[in-house]
Amino acid sequence: MAKVVAVTQSASSLAEVEARFNLSRNQDMAFFLEWQAPFSEVSEKEAGSLDLVYRRLQYHRADGELLEGAVTLLVVSPLLELADLYDPPFKLKSEASIEIAVDDGEETLRGRIDALILQNQLWVIVVEAKKTTIPLRSALPQLLTYLMANPIPDRSVFGLITNGDEVLFVKLSQTPAAQYDISRAFSLYTVRSELTQVLQILKKISKIIA
Questions:
Q1: How many domains does the chain have?
Q2: CA 156, CA 143: separation in Å to the nearest integer?
Q3: How far apart are CA 112 and CA 126, in angstroms?
């Protein structure tokens, strides 16, 4: 019988995940063009909504660190709504369960994703931000493990990691070889314009997939 291990326990480091899945980083700029310009312009209505997201983040962040639930309500949910990811043809699964067999079936990794959308092609994980010093990249091993559980391995998948202060995008492809790349980190808390860029990237990815 296969040994069952939680993803949070098995994905402790990037090196471990890369070795387990024979996964490597592709640093060719052409591999992950989705997070780069050109982007479509945001409307005045969208800009107004982003201003509200920014003001609320500043207001609540002034009282201290934000935990996962607050990050979801203040940042993730509004961005997904503005990117039209709650509407057809997209679906949302909250705390979606994943399971992936490794080591020739000797071990099974199980976990839950905070939000899974885009017909299983955009996976969103929210980092619990008890301290602002926790880097986004600390959640990268866990997200990559989730992405490897993609049920359609011949199609690229995308991920988003956020702690409320920053956002990082990830792309993973399993054909012809398992490889991934990451975007730069976008600052939501300190640079208002980067909130706009995050929305533009989400909209660009959604159009490509839809």
A1: 1
A2: 14
A3: 11
